[in-house]
Amino acid sequence: GAGVSQSPSNKVTEKGKDVELRCDPISGHTALYWYRQSLGQGLEFLIYFQGNSAPDKSGLPSDRFSAERTGGSVSTLTIQRTQQEDSAVYLCASSTRTSGAHYEQYFGPGTRLTVT
Amino acid sequence: SQKIEQNSEALNIQEGKTATLTCNYTNYSPAYLQWYRQDPGRGPVFLLLIRENEKEKRKERLKVTFDTTLKQSLFHITASQPADSATYLCALPDNSGGGADGLTFGKGTHLIIQP
Fold first, then answer.
1. Who's near B89: CB < 8 A, 6+ residues apart?
2. What span, in angstroms and rounded, lies between the C-alpha atoms of B112 and B11?
């Protein structure tokens, strides 16, 4: 079956430009997560969606980062006025998690963002 | 603040032996703990979840233990194979499992199984 897909797989952008990263979760998964993985660092939690709402935005590193999810499916992560420190692999995950339960997360292959 | 520690040095194990990886955490009272495998250039893949009231969980050649007193989980791979070579990540819920929990990951341990 289809897993989590992300696009683009690689993105090179100039400092100061805006970028949009897309995530298609597994069909039927209500929970969606964005993480960031920098070279030599662990995964850093950014934001979580349950359906279309984002109850936890605490991990977004600055107000240049925003995310939305429409129709309870596809999500986009937008980074405005990109900086070199934004260079990382951005990973999306989805799960069937509902409140009070604990489920594994299924990850996409990631988008490698390079800001020059 | 919450902190997860995994041995950042690579772990070299001879094929056929048991590999044991350690995950220690502080300032947590997690409802569960998860282990993931990550290969280069790929997203993490879920392996096992163990809940706070479970001492041990097994899946094929994998075994995970969870000691909430020691604040430690051990991850074992028995009869290790070169294909088991990867980075293994320990993960805990951000809010001790009570809220909208993204996961907090350790930096991972790179396991190398020598043929």
1. A42, A43, B6, B35, B36, B37, B38, B44, B105, B106, B107, B108
2. 6
Could you report the average pLDDT of every consecutive run of 10 residues in chain A (116 residues)? 91 98 93 90 88 80 93 94 97 79 85 97
With tokens 């290969």, the residue in question is B39
Q: Is B103 an 8 Å CB contact of chain A?
A: yes
- β-pair partners for A31: A50, A95
Is residue B25 a contact partner of residue B3, using CB atoms and an 8 Å limit? yes
DSSP state of B79: S
Mutate to test the interface with A, among B1, B92, B95, B103 (most CBs of A within 10 A): B103
Residue where the block lists tokens 């950042």: B8
Neighbours of B12 (CB within 10 A): 12
